[in-house]
Amino acid sequence: MLERAGGIRALASELAEDAASTKVVRKLGLRVRIVDRPFLQPLGRRTASEVWRRQLRWARLRRDSFKSLFGLEVFAGSVPALVAGAIAAGAADLPVMPCLLALGAVWYAAEAWLCLVAGWQLSRRSPLIWLMRDLLLPVLWAASWLGRDFVWRNTPMRIADRGRNAGASSSRNRNQPQGGMRNIGNPMLAPASDAPRQFRTMFLSDIHLGRRGCQAEELIDFLRHHEAETIYLVGDIVDGWELRSGWYWPQAHNDVVQKLLRQARKGVRVIYIPGNHDEFLRDYYGTHFGGVDVLESTIHVAADGRRYLVIHGDLFDVVIRHARWLALLGDKAYDVAIWCNTALNIVRRKLGLTYWSLSQWAKLKVKNAVNFIGHYEQTIAAEAKRHGVDGVICGHIHHPVIRDDAGCRYINCGDWVESCTAVVEHFDGRFEIIRWTRSSQPGNLLPEQNAAHLPAPMAQPTV
Known about the structure:
Blueprint: H1 17-27, H2 48-65, H3 67-71, H4 79-91, H5 96-118, H6 126-144, E1 149-152, E2 155-159, H7 162-175, E3 189-191, E4 197-204, H8 216-225, E5 226-233, H9 240-245, H10 251-265, E6 269-272, E7 288-289, E8 292-294, E9 298-301, E10 307-310, H11 318-322, H12 324-350, H13 358-365, H14 367-386, E11 391-394, E12 401-403, E13 409-412, E14 421-425, E15 431-435
Parallel strand pairs: 4-5, 5-6, 6-8, 10-11, 11-13
Antiparallel strand pairs: 1-2, 2-3, 4-14, 7-8, 9-10, 12-13, 14-15
Helix pairs in contact: 2-6, 4-5, 8-10, 13-14
């Protein structure tokens, strides 16, 4: 159906992809069927203000996508029926309050019966909750018309005017180079803050979703300020080792997945190269799901024509290949180091000091660690030469760097546990490493040539 409707970009014709898919189906002369029973959504505990903001966001999206239908929503719930009943009782010279109580009892008894028949959630508090819901529905409906702003995933957004934005979008498209995708995404949904920086390619590695040390909030903030035509996920995105020993998946980790999948739905090319921690995906090489291609490795051709081997790099780690038990033991020791690092930096923040990474310091100070990193870089570079390419882009060892002294260009993406770094390619073929932390400000970058000697994690994004 998507192909008949013009491809996946048809889903970007509306603010919400479910609204867009509904219109796509209807335009093809088909009917949209709603599921016959609700399904659980693990949203976790929410405050009253969070619930209100969520409902207001979706009300404003419905208002923009289906104006005529949304106009009738003010008549939903029991309030219009109770008001009409009160007017009718007064006109018939009947006692208003007993009539309202009787009408309310019949109304909510019918809803309770529907819940029992459909198997929906029902408790003793349900009638009170239903009454609160119905009293707030007209307020929500009115509030949805009073503004165009809302907050989504902690990002202030604004629903742009369709007419003005369409003209602006056409102007941008005329000025955009052929074959480019600089203005990707829905033009009607604009961030209330500054527009994200645009890059040709973005490389993310070693996010370790499912691990307690994962800096998912930092990554979400980074993705909010940076966009690319192509995103490479260079292994260890999900930490299967950690999830097997104990389930840990907070909302922020789920937000990262949704953010990346949403980029894929909007036309961004997303390539996933599994690593050792997400090795369960290695059974799916060559598959395509949710707009994401799963590959063992690939060759990236930069804007300047240089060719780079993109690979996670664990296959060149002798410990991973020949002593898996030692790798698992080291993984647990790494957890302890990250915990100590977190506690140490809490104290440093209280003293007004910047972020400092214990594990990064150890890597640069301990002779064996330095030798291991050097041997790893040389081995990866030799593999790149064997493939006849100009360089290699990898991850695995959580040591972000760009080097040209190994016989070819060596680029390591770093990680989102301690370094919080990503590699980006500009539209002229230049590569940079961006370091991102809570105190980072968008656009504060250093030249690429300084990236080869990155210091321990700092409080500003550096390259």
